[in-house]
Design brief:
single chain; about 325 residues; alpha/beta; Spore Coat Polysaccharide Biosynthesis Protein SpsA, Chain A; five-stranded mixed beta sheet; three-stranded mixed beta sheet; 12 helices
Length: about 325
């Protein structure tokens, strides 16, 4: 990629209230590691039953973004969703946007829907508010721990970078369901798949077109993910769209996106130790801890985590780091 390129990238994060402190750490990490000239917008999508309160709390993070503060755009789902095209879609939208509707107990996500389901639709729809040529989808737990350049996300042919991994059982389930749902033929011998963990990079125009194509087949995406998901996932639906196009997935995406280091909610203690050690050694530019893991860490693991945060410049004071972790644990126990 030409160092003088005038291309830019938008960063998109979907957040709900339990993750506010993770977003705070992410904001600080972006200030430390992402040059302002490569960023068009930082789009934070509010995925919470109390949109108003969380929106105000996210707006209050402007200072944490430092030199990127003017890039922050707090986005409500209403800024993303399509207008219903018929009576059925209007009824669907009314149902999923009405907390405590019959047969739908209120949960913590947008309008009382399940947060994990709804964030999948927001990732697909996010490019509708993009101002840059590319979007990088993040989770709130993603912390950038070393200096990044545009070339880390976009290759020499100006394709968004990605990578391929051998699929786990759940990923095989998602990809099969996604192709079946769209009535696309599965590629023969699926040995490797693109990532289902963030960061993930797309061309903004391509993602907008993919969202339109999916809504033509599945209806309103917010309604689809709210209660009709049928085993598909956002990233595998997008993979299926790319595979159906001339040149397939490899025609749209380049290689070379660095794999993140992620401590998943179900990670065993030895896997947690290995990930922390790799992060301390600087083996990846993005490091993540699922919010459920904070209450499971032992004293040695906490010491390593705080050292990673300090190295990244996101929480250099041990007292602040402890306060952040305590809030994360308390909020996770609440919901």
């Amino acid at each position: 990629m030409d160092a003088n390129s005038n291309l830019t990238i938008d960063f998109v994060t979907i957040v709900f209230s339990q993750e506010l402190d993770l977003l705070r750490l992410q904001a600080r990490s972006m200030h430390q590691c992402v040059p302002p000239q490569m960023v068009g917008r930082i789009i934070v999508i509010i995925n919470d039953i109390d949109e108003e309160s969380l929106s105000e709390q996210v707006e209050a993070l402007h200072a944490d973004y430092g030199a990127l503060t003017d890039k922050l755009f707090v986005c409500r789902p209403a800024d993303l969703i399509s207008t219903p095209a018929n009576l059925w879609q209007r009824l669907e939208r009314f149902y999923i946007s009405t907390p405590n509707a019959p047969g739908r107990p209120a949960r913590g996500g947008w309008r009382g829907n399940g947060g994990w389901r709804m964030q999948q639709s927001w990732k697909i729809l996010a490019a509708r508010q993009a101002v840059s040529d590319y979007v990088c989808i993040l989770d709130a737990k993603n912390i950038i721990v070393r200096r990044m350049a545009l070339s880390d996300f976009i290759d020499e042919q100006e394709k968004p970078r990605s990578y391929l991994v051998p699929p786990a059982d759940n990923q095989l389930k998602w990809v099969r369901a996604s192709f079946r749902l769209l009535k696309f033929a599965m590629p023969g011998g699926v040995g490797h798949l693109p990532p289902t963990v963030t960061p993930v990079v797309y061309r903004s125009g391509w993602l907008r077109d993919a969202a339109k194509a999916l809504e033509q087949r599945l209806g309103l995406l917010d309604c689809y993910f709210a209660y009709r998901r049928n085993g598909a996932s956002e990233f595998m639906l997008l993979f299926a769209i790319a595979e159906s196009q001339p040149g397939g997935w490899s025609g749209q995406f380049g290689m070379g996106l660095a794999k993140p280091l992620t401590i998943f909610g179900s990670a065993a203690p030895d896997a947690v130790d290995a990930c922390l050690d790799q992060a301390l050694a600087g083996e990846a530019p993005v490091f993540s801890v699922h919010r459920k893991q904070f209450s499971c860490l032992n004293a040695g693991q906490i010491e390593k985590l705080f050292a990673i945060w300090a190295q990244a410049g996101v929480a250099t004071d041990a007292q602040e780091a402890q306060a952040i972790m305590s809030r994360l644990i308390a909020k996770n126990q609440q919901g």
